[in-house]
Amino acid sequence: MRHHVPVSSIMTKNVIALTRSDDLERAELLFKRYKIKHIPVVSGETIIGILSYTDLMRISYAELADEDGNSVDSVVYNMFDIEQVMVKDVVTVNSRTSIKEVAKILADREFHALPVVDDNTLVGIVTTTDLLNYFIKQI
Question: Which PANTHER family match (predicted)?
């Protein structure tokens, strides 16, 4: 296994992102449409937070519906905005960070995703799934 392979070689480059003006219903739609679990929140190209599907589920009543068949989630989602639910102190790495260092951060901090930022601009995201797929190819 190569020792200093940069995370840029395994990260997702076409990042789905939210802005602080997006609502939580849009976030849920993006999570489901793209089958992802983490969405960076940006102001321009600068990351200001990250929202996980788990964060969203913590505030909702998943799979519950009222008598009309409308999701209770939309009522709950209207009580919060993106900034209230997202994690604000986001740990990031740059595109030259080694895969080994990324794996160490994810394991030590018990995260499942790290935004990749170069010169204050979001350029990608790397997840535990990306790491596992990389390691599987090495075996």
Answer: CBS DOMAIN-CONTAINING PROTEIN, CBS DOMAIN-CONTAINING PROTEIN CBSX3, MITOCHONDRIAL
Question: Is 1 among the domain residues?
Answer: no
Cα atoms in the 13 Å half-sphere on the side-chain side of 63:
0
pLDDT of 113 over the 90 cut:
yes
| Residue indicated by tokens 């595109």 | 95
**Which residues span the domain enclosing 78?**
7-138
- Residue 98: other Cβ atoms inside 10 A: 15
